[in-house]
Write a structure and sequence with these properties.
97 residues; four-stranded mixed β-sheet
């Protein structure tokens, strides 16, 4: 597992962040380990892993990577993305009416 793509955050695209996307049910520690390695190779300190769910070991590895290596990895569940999209879409519709 490496970096699948990049995104921009902020209105003006201040920073590019790596993203890894997995289609498995539960992402584990090994996914986080591999993503950490890819991030270090590209000299990134922040990134996102997207999956349907994550194991306890994945969350523990993210915490370890942050405290010991300064890597800020966010585990994002697919349903969180869907929920944020729906909420934003409904707000957009309200503005049109």
């Amino acid at each position: 597992m490496g970096i699948d793509g990049y995104t921009f955050y902020g209105l003006y695209g201040e920073k590019e962040y790596p993203i890894a996307v997995k289609r498995m049910d539960k992402g584990g520690r090994i996914w986080v380990d591999n993503f950490e390695t890819a991030m270090r190779r590209k000299q990134h300190t922040k990134g996102y892993i997207i999956a349907f769910d994550f194991t306890k070991d994945a969350y523990e590895e993210v915490a370890r990577a942050k405290s010991q290596e300064g890597l800020d990895i966010e585990l994002v569940k697919v349903n969180e993305i869907s929920k944020r999209f729906r909420e934003g879409f409904m707000e957009t519709l309200k503005g049109i009416r």
